[in-house]
Amino acid sequence: MARSGRGTQARLPLLLSAAVVAALSSAPNFAGPLWVRARCPLEELCHPLVTSALLPLKAASGQASRARLALRAHHGRPKRTNPKARKRRARLQKEEAKKERKEVVMKRKGQRPRKPTAVKSGARAEAKSALDLPAEASHLLHGRWSGHGGQAAKLQLKLQGYQVVNHIQREKESLSREVGMLDKKIQTIEQDNRKAKLHREKQLAEQMESWKAKVREDALEAAGRKAPDGCCEQFGGIEISWESTPATCSILPDAQKFLRLREQTGILAAIDGEDVHRKSRTEVLKLFAKFQGSIEVLPPESIFASMWLSAHQALEGESLPDLECAEGSDWLAGMRLAWTKPPVVRELSAESMRHFPGLTVGDHLLEVDGTEVPGLTRGQILELLADLKGDMRLLPKGSFRLWLIQKDARKALQSGPEEDPESQGSGGCDWCGGILIAWAAPPFVRDITPEAHAAFSEPVHPGDVLTQVDDADVRGMGRKATLELLAAMKQSITFMAASRHRFMQSVALRAPEDEESWIGGLLIHWTSPPVVKEVYPEFQGFYEQPVSQGDRLASVHGTDVEGMDRAAILGLLSIYPESFSLRFLTAHLLRMHEDAAMALERGKKRHPKFREGHNWIGGVQLLWTIPPQVLQVKKEAEAIFPDALPGNYLALVDDQNIFVGMRTRREILQNLKRCKSVAFLDGERLAGYAAIAKQVLGDLMEALTGGDFQAADE
């Protein structure tokens, strides 16, 4: 019984102490041992099986030991913590106790305790920090947490993070307030600037109105008096000289601040948008009398000012003489223009090259401000140039006739052809660039003006046939197709003389199936090769060399016809090119071929004076020296070979420039057997050629051997 009574008596103080501890632990300022708050919540301290002594309020060492023994009896031995964490907790507890003692001492002395530092320690500092944190941080602070150092550090990091976020939020709000204040200041400044600008503009407008009134007043005053001689007049700071037409102008500083012109000195071009460069003083004063504040001044070196001045001077004076033009010429903006139709450039100066880059002597003036000038007189063209506003169009040398043909062809396409009085029932005719073209098959020239006749490098005469436009053959085309080609022409047109056209027509006709045929004024006998039987004298001028009876046809358009039959030769003749070419072998050349073949077969003959031997080739006796030398010439061969004089040398065979002196007798005879031409040279010319050849050969050998003449000899 005594034992049970002692137990009851022992439990009573425990229960009372548990109640006190529970009350203190729930208080916000409770600073009891950390281990007790962590391991002994209220419900565990009040458990009926607690048999240890009560935990005293002042934490006496003996009572604390008995409280720990009681707790161990109920819970068992607590979990051992990390020694470093335990030391850290002990250090924190000591610092907390030291701080509390210091505060008590300061209160007793009447001193005001210092504010807590930024680094807070202990449960009170953490609880105080939690008051300014979100609910999640407060919950983490007041909930159960272990005494381990790692978990406390994590909680401390989270608390610091929340504090950083709060700081950033406050800074953001502060910056927003500052930005708002700056915006208000900027708006105030802009409003002040707008007011100042409006005030300045109002003042400038008032000044400009007074200046305009001054200009109008000066103009009205000047209209009542005569123009001063040799001096200028001012109109509100605009100084004008009436000595030349158009009037020159100079802007003084008083007017420049209102006009703001790039050029302050030059030709007065316009007042309030109206051209004045050709107006008189009275007309200019009338415009100034209702002045609205705008003028235009051109520098004297500009193209318009230069052309206006030069054109006015040309209108007031006479033209300069020109050898090729009766109306003469004039200097305009640095170029001398002859008054042909159209005007042509005769000379150029540095000024014109600045105004018209690419201009050359011989170019033609075609348009002025869109007006075509080829049919205008000198005075009419100068009037246009004196009032030049836009652009001048000049054609390169030789392009005017092309432009005129294109223009007339486009005009002819829109209208019908003119009647051709000389050819009833034909397709009519049309003027194209000064050439009257009759629409026959093929088209031919009915008439031509002197200007067009002089424009072509080869003269064009009435009756000539239009054969080509650019690269297109128009001899088989009709009027519309030919005019369309002429309207789009880019290069040139080609005409053929009437007689040559008739000759070409005779060549183009295929010969009938018989032994002899007339082709190009020649009666051809179809042997192999063909032989000329008869020749019309009027066609001799179309061949490169005179054609005689008995000559043989050698080539057609450069193609050798040896071995060809009649059909192949007629096929070559039907090509009908512009440059027709037939080549014949004369009877003397044929005799030379026969003599060369016989000399090859029989060998050279002995000569009583010369040991080299000789042969008669085509009526010429050749001594087989190197090169062959002419000994004698028969009378019938003298006309054929005028250079074959006794003592001369055979130098060339055919047009391949074969130097026979470099060949043997057999090689020379082989060439003479089929040659088409030969050439003879006298001894002096041949020696000169030989010296030149020797010098060239020496220079070549020196270049090849580097000056080693021994190697050259080898």
UniProtKB/TrEMBL annotation:
Signal as a keyword?
yes
Basic and acidic residues bias locations: 92-106
Record region (Disordered): 66-125
Question: Coiled-coil intervals in this record?
Answer: 165-192
| InterPro entries recorded | PDZ_sf
Question: For this UniProt entry, which residues form the secretion signal?
Answer: 1-26
Q: Where is the composition biased (Basic residues)?
A: 69-91, 107-117
Q: Where are the transmembrane segments?
A: none
Which key words tag this protein in UniProt?
Coiled coil, Signal
UniProt-recorded name of the protein: PDZ domain-containing protein
